[in-house]
Design brief:
The chain is α+β, with helices and mostly antiparallel strands. It has helices at 58-66, 104-117, 123-126, 129-138; strands spanning 8-16, 24-32, 39-45, 51-57, 74-81, 84-93, 96-103. It is found in: Cell septum.
């Protein structure tokens, strides 16, 4: 399998759900790095030069487009609203909780682009498990 090593990014206009108030527009960037084929990241701009980034399983995002997925800090599920279909993204940490609405079509487009680089199920062909284990166990490759 030939894998391209280009990052996949998508600029998304999300909506932060505010209890009892109007949703707040939030700019975010989704990113996929083929070198870390199981994960996707989403970064939220919180200031001029500050970004808060969350990384979670690409499979979680893919599953969440179709049905509720996730048990922990990151949960994703499909929903409908008057403007069309959306994907909800719930992020929880010790410092707080946030619920975002994402345009479903843009999430699907992003996922399709990631699968064009590393197909679903092809992640294990990209990762050198022996090298990763050596890094974890010994702090580097063993010769």
């Amino acid at each position: 399998m030939t894998i391209r090593h280009d990052s996949i990014t998508a600029e998304l206009a999300l909506r932060l759900v505010v209890p009892g108030g109007a949703p707040v527009p939030v700019a975010a960037t989704m990113r996929y790095e083929p070198a870390d084929p199981y994960a996707v990241s989403i970064g939220f701009r919180t200031g001029a030069d500050e970004v808060v980034e969350w990384t979670f399983a690409r499979q979680l995002l893919s599953d969440g487009v179709r049905r509720p997925a996730g048990d922990g800090d990151v949960q994703v599920w499909p929903a409908a609203q008057s403007g069309g279909r959306i994907v909800c993204l719930s992020l929880s940490s010790p410092s707080g909780h946030a619920l975002f609405e994402m345009p479903r079509s843009e999430v699907l487009s992003f996922l399709r682009r990631t699968y064009s680089v590393v197909p679903l199920g092809g992640e294990s062909e990209v990762v050198d498990l022996d090298a990763e284990l050596a890094l974890l166990i010994w702090g580097g490759p063993q010769t």
